[in-house]
C-alpha cells in the first residue's frame, strides 16, 4: 500500500526524520497512483513529491546544527566551475538563521513543508471543493495554498497535518501558529519568482504593500524566507534526496542578493517595486555576470538589466555565461529587443500575475542543446569519447554549455515573447481568468523542447515560429500547435539573419543559403562576412 511504501522508504533512507501517521497520510496525497508497489518506490515518478518532501525535512534537520554541513552538501558537485558546492561559511550563515527558530516555529515549518508537497493534488482539490466551493481557487500550486490558508479554519478543515498541529499546542499559542502559517503562504509573494525574475516589478508589490500597511512584520518575513529556503533545498530532491542537490553556492548568493534587496522594505518607508527590481538586477549583472566593464556606449544600463533579467530566468551566475548570454542577445533584432524590454518591464494595466515555469523551459533547453551539440559536432564528440585528460574534457564541456546558452537565447526568447503577447491578448478578452498565470510547464517538457531546439537556432538558423505557432488554453498553459514534424524543418524559406551591433545601433540583415556550412556564415561582431 502507498502508506507502507512511504513509511518503509522514510525509515530506510531517512531514519532521523520521524513521521506521524497523519503526516504519512498527508504525504500520500502527493502520490499520483492509488496503489504503489514498494519495490518500485525509488524509481517510480509517482513518488517524486514524497522524495522532495523527505529531502526537505532532512535538510531542515541538518540546518539546525553546524555539524549538518557534510550531510547537507553530500550530493553537490565539487568540480563544476559553473556550479560550485555550497561552502561551509555559506552553510553557517543559513544554519544560524534556523538555529534561531524556537520549537513552535520549527513545528510550523515542518507542517508548511509537508503541505507544500500536496497542492492541487486530487485529494487537496476534493477537500478544497468541499470547503471553498467547487473550483473556487486558483489553478496554480502556490496560489492554491494562499487561497486555502487565507482563512485558517479552512486550512484546518482541508489539511490533516494543520489540524494535528493545532491540536498539539495549547490555545494560547494558536494565534502565533496562525500568523506563521499564513506568513508561509501569502498570495502573490513567490520567492523563487523574485529570485529568477520570472515577472516584472509587480512581483514585489504584494510584499511591499504588506510591509507598508503592517500586515507582515519582521518575524513573519523571516519565517517566510526560512520556509522558502527549505523549499529550495529539496527542489531537485526527486533526483537525489540525500542532501540538497539544488542549494549550491550560486543559489545561496542569489538568495542573499535578493534578501538584501528585500530588507530595504524595512528600512526605507517609500521604496518602490521598480527600485527593488532594479537593485536586484544590478547585483546580478555587476556581481554575477560581471558586465560592469562593458562601456555604456556599447550596452546601456537598461540593456544590462534586461540581460540580467534573462540571465536570472536562465539561472546564469558566471562571467563566461554572461558573455554567452550577450553573444546570443546580439543575434536578436533590435525591434525584438525593444519588445522584450517593454514586455518584461512595463507594468500591465490589469494586475497581471507572474508567469510560471519559464526558467524550467530555459534550463531544459540548455541541457538539450548541450546533448545535441555533442552529437552534431564531431570534434566535441571525439574529445568526450577518446580523450582521458579531465582538463581537456572540462574545457570542451564548458564550451558546449556556453554555446548552448547562446542557442537558447536565440531560440527561446522570441517564443517567450510571443506567448506573453498572446496571453495578454486572451486575458484582456476575458478568455483567461484574471488570477490565472501564464504557464510554460507543458512547453518545458522533453518533447516540446525537442521541437523548439531540435536544430540550432544559430548554426542552422532554425526558428520554430516559422513552422508553427503557439496556443494557450484557459489555464494559461502554453503549447505548440500544430506539432512540428522533423521533415518539415528544412522547407522554410531562406531565413533572414539579424545581427544587432550594440555599439553603432545598426541592424545588418542578410539572406543565408541553407546549403552553406554554418561555420562559414557565422555573423561577426562588426558585420557579416562571407
Characteristic terms for this protein:
530 residues; mainly alpha; two-stranded antiparallel ribbon; two-stranded antiparallel sheet; 23 helices; 53% helix; disordered C terminus; DUF6829
Q: Element order, helices and strands?
A: HHHHHHHHHHHHHHHHHHHHHHHEEEE
> Class by helix and strand content?
mainly alpha
Spans of at least 5 consecutive residues whose pLDDT stays below 50 are 34-43, 485-530
Question: How is the biggest beta sheet arranged?
Answer: 2 strands, antiparallel
Strands, count: 4
What's the pLDDT, averaged over the residues?
86
Strand order of the main beta sheet, please?
Answer: 1-2
Oligomer: single chain
Individual helix count: 23
Shape: globular
Helical amount: 40-55%
How far is it from the N-terminal to the C-terminal residue, by CA? 66 Å
Fraction of residues in β-strands:
under 5%
**Cα Rg:** 24 Å
Indicate how many domains the architecture comprises: 2
Can you walk me through this structure?
InterPro entries: DUF6829 (IPR049232). 53% of the residues lie in helices and 4% in strands. It is built from 23 helices and four strands. Strands 1-2 form a two-stranded antiparallel ribbon. Helix 6 packs across helix 11 and helix 9 crosses helix 10. The protein is globular. The relative contact order is 0.08. The C terminus is likely disordered.
Amino acid at each position: 500500500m502507498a502508506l507502507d511504501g512511504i513509511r518503509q522508504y522514510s525509515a530506510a533512507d531517512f531514519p532521523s526524520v520521524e513521521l506521524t501517521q497523519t503526516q504519512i497520510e498527508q504525504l500520500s496525497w502527493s502520490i499520483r497512483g492509488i496503489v504503489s508497489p514498494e519495490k518500485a518506490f525509488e524509481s517510480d515518478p509517482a513518488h517524486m513529491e514524497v522524495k522532495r518532501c523527505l529531502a526537505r525535512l532532512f535538510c531542515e534537520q541538518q540546518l539546525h546544527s553546524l555539524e549538518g554541513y557534510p550531510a547537507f552538501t553530500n550530493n553537490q558537485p565539487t568540480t563544476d566551475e559553473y556550479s560550485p558546492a555550497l561552502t561551509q561559511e555559506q552553510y553557517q550563515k543559513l544554519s544560524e538563521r534556523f538555529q534561531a527558530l524556537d520549537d513552535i516555529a520549527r513545528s510550523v515549518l515542518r507542517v508548511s513543508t509537508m503541505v507544500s508537497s500536496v497542492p492541487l493534488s486530487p485529494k487537496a482539490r476534493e477537500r478544497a471543493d468541499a470547503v471553498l466551493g467547487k473550483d473556487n481557487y486558483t489553478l496554480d500550486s502556490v496560489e492554491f495554498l494562499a487561497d486555502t490558508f487565507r482563512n485558517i479554519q479552512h486550512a484546518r478543515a482541508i489539511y490533516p497535518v494543520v489540524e494535528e498541529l493545532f491540536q498539539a499546542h495549547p490555545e494560547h499559542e494558536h494565534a502565533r501558529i496562525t500568523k506563521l502559517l499564513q506568513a508561509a503562504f501569502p498570495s502573490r509573494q513567490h520567492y523563487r519568482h523574485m529570485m529568477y525574475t520570472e515577472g516584472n516589478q509587480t512581483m514585489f508589490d504584494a510584499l511591499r504593500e504588506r510591509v507598508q500597511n503592517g500586515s507582515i512584520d519582521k518575524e513573519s518575513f523571516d519565517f517566510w524566507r526560512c520556509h522558502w529556503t527549505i523549499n529550495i533545498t529539496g527542489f531537485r530532491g526527486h533526483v537525489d534526496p540525500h542532501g540538497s542537490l539544488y542549494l549550491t553556492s550560486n543559489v545561496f548568493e542569489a538568495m542573499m542578493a535578493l534578501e538584501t534587496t528585500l530588507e530595504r522594505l524595512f528600512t526605507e518607508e517609500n521604496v518602490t517595486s521598480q527600485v527593488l527590481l532594479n537593485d536586484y538586477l544590478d547585483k546580478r549583472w555587476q556581481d554575477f555576470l560581471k558586465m560592469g566593464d562593458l562601456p555604456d556606449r556599447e550596452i546601456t544600463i537598461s540593456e544590462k538589466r534586461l540581460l540580467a533579467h534573462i540571465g536570472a530566468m536562465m539561472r546564469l551566475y558566471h562571467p563566461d555565461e554572461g558573455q554567452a548570454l550577450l553573444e546570443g542577445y546580439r543575434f536578436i533584432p533590435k525591434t525584438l529587443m525593444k519588445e522584450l524590454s517593454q514586455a518584461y518591464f512595463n507594468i500591465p494595466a490589469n494586475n497581471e500575475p507572474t508567469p510560471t515555469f519559464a526558467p524550467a523551459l530555459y534550463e531544459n533547453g540548455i541541457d538539450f542543446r548541450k546533448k545535441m551539440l555533442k552529437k552534431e559536432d564531431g570534434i566535441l564528440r571525439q574529445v568526450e569519447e577518446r580523450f582521458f585528460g579531465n582538463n581537456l574534457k572540462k574545457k570542451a564541456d564548458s564550451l558546449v554549455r556556453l554555446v548552448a546558452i547562446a542557442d537558447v537565447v536565440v531560440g527561446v526568447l522570441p517564443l517567450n515573447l510571443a506567448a506573453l503577447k498572446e496571453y495578454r491578448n486572451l486575458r484582456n478578452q476575458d478568455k483567461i481568468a484574471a488570477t490565472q498565470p501564464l504557464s510554460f510547464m507543458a512547453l518545458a517538457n522533453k518533447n516540446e523542447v525537442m521541437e523548439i531546439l531540435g536544430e540550432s537556432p544559430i548554426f542552422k538558423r532554425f526558428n520554430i515560429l516559422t513552422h508553427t505557432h503557439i496556443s494557450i488554453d484557459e489555464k494559461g498553459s502554453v503549447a505548440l500547435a500544430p506539432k512540428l514534424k522533423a521533415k518539415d524543418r528544412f522547407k522554410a524559406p531562406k531565413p533572414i539573419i539579424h545581427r544587432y551591433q550594440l555599439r553603432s545601433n545598426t541592424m545588418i540583415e542578410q539572406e543565408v543559403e541553407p546549403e552553406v556550412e554554418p561555420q562559414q556564415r557565422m555573423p561577426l561582431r562588426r558585420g557579416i562576412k562571407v
